[in-house]
Each structure stands twice: as structure tokens, then as C-alpha cells.
Amino acid sequence: MADLSCTIAGIPSPNPFWVASAPPSDKYYNVDRAFRAGWGGVVWKTLGIDPPIVNVTSRYGSVNLNGQKMMGLNNNELITDRPLEVNLAEIKQIKEEWPDRAVVVSLMVPCNQNDWEYILRKVEDTGADGVELNFGCPHGMSERGMGAAVGQVPDYVEMVTRWVKENSDLPCIVKLTPNITDIRYPARAAKAGGADGVSLINTISSIVSVDLDSMSPEPSIEGKGTHGGYCGPAVKPIALNMTSEIARDPETLGLPISAIGGISNWKDAAEFMSMGAEGVQVCTAIMHYGFRIVEDMIEGLNHWMDEKGYEKIEDFRGMAAKNVVDWQYLRRLASGDQNE
Ligand SMILES: Cc1cc2nc3c(=O)[nH]c(=O)nc-3n(C[C@H](O)[C@H](O)[C@H](O)COP(=O)(O)O)c2cc1C
After folding, report:
1. What is the mean pLDDT of residues 253-278?
2. Which residues line ligand 1 (CB under 6 A)?
3. pLDDT of 170
4. Does this model's pTM top 0.90?
């Protein structure tokens, strides 16, 4: 049997499979179910400063393909809508009951140092293993100067990451937004700010469809809609490319990556790790199929590694990233002319 234990951004985990910050990691009840099923870690649903935000009721849209559900999921859910103290008490309890699992807390607060210091003290008191800075949400919070509004400006990414690292010893993962032209810039900024790793991708700005009778974008509330965040199998190629960009960039070489985006099975996960990720996170596939998909993920990865003779994840991590080359080199290979 291969050894699936690993360290992701300095945080030990019994396996590389983490639940991403989203509805499956929003409360004690769900995280306990996740750990019972076998998930190695969770990133708790993003916390903010009270008063809690109010979510809209109709917040999901699906893109199907050839009648099959579903190629992609769109949501305009915001961060947690539960009080901070309730979440913190549950995080403390879950970490006490599951000491061998990774419990990372996702955070999104306004861009001022006092708020960051305040929430970091609170998270430290829970015994959590690390924090993930949510610089990724493309909807709702970005209009309030948070989420992707920070992630799209490398200077802000670096500044807030530095505040966090100066004010806490907790490992810090910076979650990046894909709603940007070149993912390497915010990744470099996270590294410059002292991040222990990056996670990507958060969701992609999207409108899933239009109701042609009411002429409203979907999902709609009283005839009105807004853009949401796209995720699920459809976004995997985008996430895989962005992962490879960071893994190959000389300026971020070796920066730990927790990969996210359309991962549904062991093979998807192995692909991201072969592209350089230390571990992976999953949201949509859990919402679609349930927590128990992790059983197949663990078993499948184990069998494949045994078959290939890989004893640990490091034995194959990053191998495919070495074979991603800039386009002009492929042309040279095809023409056989190394001097072209
Ligand atoms: C309903 C929903 C809510 C989400 N909420 C958060 C959140 O609070 N914080 C966050 O960092 N990402 C959030 N995400 C994004 C996911 O963590 C993840 O980055 C994204 O869905 C891509 O992974 P997937 O393709 O496995 O779903 C949310 C996604 C969905 C679908």
C-alpha cells in the first residue's frame, strides 16, 4: 500500500484530499461527516466579521451537457451567514475530536490591519492548523472591497498576506482568483508577502443562462439575476493550466500549491499533483455525489501508485509540470529543427 500522508503548505494531513471552503465545510455537522468518510482535511467555509451577511435564497445554477447533469455549477452564495462565535466554537470542537485531520479556516475581512489581527487571534484560540485567505470570491463580497477585489491587485495580496504573517504563526495559504489575466502575478505577490502556499482556483465569474420567457438571467430572484462563480468539471482544464503556470514559474518554484477546480475522482487529483500540487480540495463533486466519494479517491490513488511503484506522493509530484513547455518549443520538436 502506498503512503498517502503528506504535508500541504506545512500542514500535515493523512491524505491529500481536503474539502474546499464551501457548503460541505460550513458547520460541525458536515465537517464531522466529512472526516468520518475519510477526508484528510477541510478548509472551513469562509468566516468574516459580524454581523453575518445575508445570503439570497435562489443561488445555484447548473450547466448540463447532452441532458446530463452537470458540467458546471454556478453559485452566488456569499461567505458564512452564521455568527462568528458559533463557527469558532464548532471549529474548536472538531479539531479536538479529530486531532489527526487538517483544519484550516478560510477568512475574508475588510482590508484593514485591525480587522485581520482581531480575527486571527480568534482563530488561533480554536487550535486550527492554519488559515486560508479568501482573495477569490468574484461576487457579492468583491463589491464590498473583499475577495476577488483583493486577489486582482497583486500589491493588496502582498500587503494583506504580510499583515497575516506578521501577526500570526499559523501557516497561511492564499486562495487565488482565476478572474485575472495572468495567475503568476498574484502568486508571486503571495510568496513575496510570506505565504506558506497558494490554493487555486476559486470560482470563475459567470452567468449560466437566460430564461427566454421572463428575459431574466438565471438563477433569478423576482426577474433579476447577477453574475455568480462557476466551478465543477467544466473548470478543471483552467485550474490545471493555472496550477502548471505557478509550478513552472521560476519566481514561485517550490511554492506549495493546494489545487482546486473540478476535481471529482482520484485521477483528477493525481493529474493536479503530477502538475505540482501538494494536495487537492473538492467542493462541487461533494455537493453532487456526497462525502463518500473520498473512499474511491483514496482507494484509486493507492492502487494506481502501487501499480506504478510510487511509494509516496513526492515520487510523482510535479513530473508532468516538467513536460509543459512554451509553445515555440513544441514547434521546434515538430519540425525537428532545434535552431528554429
Ligand atoms: C456554493 C458554493 C459556495 C462557495 N463558498 C466559498 C467560500 O465561502 N469561500 C471560498 O473560498 N470558496 C468558496 N467556494 C469555492 C470553492 O471552495 C472552490 O474554490 C470552487 O468551487 C472550485 O472547486 P470545485 O470545482 O471542486 O467546486 C464556493 C463554491 C460553491 C459552489
Report:
1. 98
2. 20-23, 45-46, 73, 75, 77, 79, 106, 134, 136-137, 175, 202-203, 231-232, 235, 260-263, 282-285
3. 98
4. yes
